[in-house]
Design a protein that fits this description.
heterodimer, A: 13 helices, B: alpha/beta, six-stranded mixed β-sheet
Chain lengths: 385, 357
């Protein structure tokens, strides 16, 4: 065989490192090739497709049963938010499986060290593996798209909501995959890496709730307040006069100031904000609620799961005064530019996503450090190769 | 599969001479500990370019640890390493470009094909797509893996995976080759091929460091042997000089009686060897003494069938080291295999975590 065996100029950069494009492309291609050749990915995808289908069917059916014949508008928002919630829930379960064995598996198989002695840097290797696991996880989101679109179509819902939702779930999957990839580089054993990633997911989705609930009593504070005076007579409900909520509100505040105990959740609501469900729910725009009865603008449809979550967490941003009548002897005046109105509109998802990204980035940096060779320290009981 | 046909087919191995020769490997009192285990405690080694250097030592003596330090995977606690003119701690990228490492574990991406593995690794070394493709095809041909090149690596036999591992190690045409137990699991034919391949690469100017348990095999190809024990260099043997080959020689004659009589006549101490008792072994001090003895025996009318060194020089040196070990070895050493090294050296499965069959 005639061959040219002379060394030729290569794509190595002058400083001896690989370009990021080449390195990332190579890692991603290698990872995806291996994933696409394993049967488990397709099995999981099929199971996922069936399960999300069942959830969609179930939520449509249960809405129809509950609403009976009084169906003035489609089950759109309700079904949409239920499907959305489940897609995110199952996505949180799938993403660790996609990511948490990526580095530790190579380490166990003896292939990690072989890549480490090439010109690819630890950062390139870890980033490439993260992106590959993210792409694999996004496959699940794509498989769920028919149901999401179906839910949107059923209720004639807004397209921006759909787009934002899909984007935010994709981002959340990326965050979880980053956690999983980083953990798999930090932890030596594959099984432990998968378990640790699931625990991190649980920390974000359940731990945030538990943390918030446990710390809530610690935020107890007192607000000076006095007595509210209500109208002497309740206004008659007249069919002809328009309903006026203002008629039910207190007229003025009177009497001595008494300390009132109230929770100040402004210092702890960030925990809930870091919850993936809160991040997604809060980012999805909430259009004006359609009236429950098209003929009566004062009726409204029940909130979906995601809308309720978002409203609830935003409410926790309010100062404690908002929950106490006649705090500081003043009525809460809707006309004034009081914090209540502001906080209802302040989104919490940027904070939550920021916390998640900060944690993922810190773990990622730690994981990268674990891949640096020549290694000065090795975890106990491990061999490099 | 014989060496002759293969060599005729391929002509020269696809490893060209280095454009500008660079120094080989220099290791100066390198130490490395893992927690309380002192894996290396003062290894000195010089592996010149254009030669095969054997790294010999019992299990747990630190051979693999030293290989990992040289492959720029482990940072030494003390001492210095220079590979192809660069320090792996300071300039790992330079070292990696010039070094091919074949680990003792078979790192194979099971679902990728042999061709894909080579192509991927080549691109990790910065080779462009076309160059990688032709180089991979050429190496697969060279290692006779072409027929299985497009099947998942998991279906390859151990020997084929081993050959793929070697092809991967020399993919980027490194100046220095670090081979950790390259022959383990190979059948005799593949071992002979490997030996010839390495010899050809050394002749082309590469620096080759090989660790192995199969001493007879190292004996046939190594120019230099470095013995390490308990993480320290204990002996360096130059195998390229034939002159001083003393030791025990095995003599076989057609008639055992005539041989015994001749040896007794010249007052040469001997002991009978072999099952049929037609062989004897004698101790000589040098190669010339052995040659003289052969001439004497033939002159005396003994019909000598064979006259061969009973043990290889490497084996002799290893056994001599082993005999001295209890007295000379550090008393504190308590590696997992410390007690096992006293018996005859033979290739065998390494203790933990190895994928040997």
């Amino acid at each position: 065989m005639a061959m040219d065996t002379k060394p030729q100029e290569s794509a190595v950069r002058p400083e001896g490192r690989l370009g990021w494009g080449t390195a990332l492309g190579n890692v991603i291609q290698m990872e995806l090739r291996q994933r696409l050749r394993t049967r488990s990915w397709y099995v999981m995808l099929a199971v996922w497709f069936v399960v999300i289908g069942l959830v969609t069917w179930g939520s449509v059916a249960s809405y129809n049963t509950l609403a009976g014949d009084d169906l003035f508008f489609g089950p759109g928002r309700f079904v949409f938010e239920a499907v959305v919630g489940f897609v995110l829930f199952f996505g949180l379960l799938v993403a660790p499986a996609m990511s948490a064995s990526t580095v530790s598996g190579d380490r166990a198989g003896g292939t990690l060290a072989i890549v480490q002695v090439t010109l690819a840097t630890p950062g390139q290797l870890l980033t490439g593996k993260w992106l590959a696991s993210w792409i694999a996880a996004l496959g699940f989101l794509v498989a769920a798209l028919p149901y999401i679109v179906l839910a949107v179509v059923l209720g004639g819902l807004d397209v921006p909501g759909l787009v934002v939702f899909v984007l935010m779930v994709a981002v959340e999957l990326g965050v979880i995959c980053a956690l999983g990839t980083a953990v798999s580089a930090i932890v030596t054993r594959t099984l432990f890496a998968v378990v640790a990633t699931y625990l991190l997911v649980a920390l974000f989705s359940l731990g945030t709730l538990i943390g918030f609930a446990l710390t809530a009593p610690l935020t107890m504070t007192t607000v000076p307040a006095n007595q509210a005076v209500y109208p002497d007579e309740q206004p008659l409900v007249d069919e002809e006069t328009e309903y006026d909520a203002a008629q039910w509100e207190p007229l003025r505040c009177t009497g001595p100031m008494v300390p009132q105990e109230v929770l100040d959740t402004r210092s702890t609501y960030w925990m809930l904000a870091a919850n993936p469900f809160v991040v997604v729910a809060d980012a999805v725009p909430h259009p004006e609620k359609p009236p429950y009865d098209p003929d009566d603008p004062d009726t409204w449809a029940p909130d979906g799961i995601m809308t309720s979550i978002s409203t609830g967490v935003r409410y926790l941003q309010q100062p404690p005064e908002a929950n106490v009548e006649c705090a500081h002897g003043q009525l809460i005046d809707d006309d004034d530019d009081l914090p209540e109105e502001d906080s209802q509109d302040t989104p919490v998802w940027p904070l939550g996503l920021g916390i998640q990204i900060a944690v993922a980035a810190a773990l990622f940096a730690w994981g990268r450090q674990r891949l640096v060779a020549p290694a000065a320290r090795l975890p106990r009981g491990t061999r490099v190769a | 599969m014989t060496t002759a046909t293969r060599t005729d087919d391929s002509g020269e191995p696809p490893v060209p001479a280095a454009p500008d020769p660079v120094p080989g490997i220099t290791v100066d009192s390198v130490a490395r500990s893992f927690g309380s285990v002192r894996a290396l405690q003062g290894v000195d080694l010089t592996a010149p370019a254009g030669a095969i250097t054997a790294l010999v030592g019992p299990n747990g003596s630190g051979k693999t640890t030293l290989m990992l330090v040289l492959a720029s995977l482990l940072k030494p606690d003390a001492g210095s390493v220079m590979i192809a003119g660069a320090d792996p701690v300071v300039h790992p990228a330079v070292v990696r470009r010039n070094t091919g490492w074949m680990p003792d574990t078979l790192g194979v991406w099971e679902s990728l094909t042999a061709r894909e593995i080579l192509a991927t690794m080549g691109r990790f070394y910065g080779m462009d797509r076309d160059r990688v493709r032709s180089r991979a095809a050429e190496l697969l041909e060279w290692q006779e893996l072409s027929t299985v090149a497009d099947q998942p690596a998991r279906v390859l036999s151990r020997g084929q995976q081993q050959r793929l591992s070697l092809a991967r190690a020399i993919l980027h045409d490194p100046q220095v080759l670090l081979l950790d137990e390259p022959a383990s699991g190979l059948d005799p034919g593949s071992r002979i091929r490997l030996r010839d391949d390495l010899k050809q690469m050394a002749a082309a100017g590469k620096t080759i460091l090989v660790s192995s348990h199969v001493l007879s095999e190292l004996d046939e190809m190594a120019d230099l042997a470095v013995f390490i024990q308990a993480g320290a260099t204990v002996r360096v043997e130059d195998l390229s000089q034939e002159g001083a080959a003393g030791g025990r020689y095995l003599i076989t004659a057609l008639e055992a009686g005539a041989l015994h009589a001749a040896l007794e006549h010249y007052s040469i101490a001997y002991r009978t060897e072999g099952k049929r008792r037609d062989s004897v072994s004698v101790e000589v001090d040098s190669a010339s003494e052995a040659a003289d003895m052969l001439a004497t025996l033939v002159g005396a009318g003994v019909r000598v069938l064979s006259f061969t060194p009973g043990t290889s020089r490497l084996e002799a040196a290893y056994l001599e080291l082993d005999r001295r070990r209890p007295a000379e070895g550090p008393a504190s050493f308590s590696g997992p295999d410390a007690g096992r090294a006293g018996t005859a050296p033979r290739p065998g499965p390494r203790p933990a975590g190895r994928g040997t069959e």
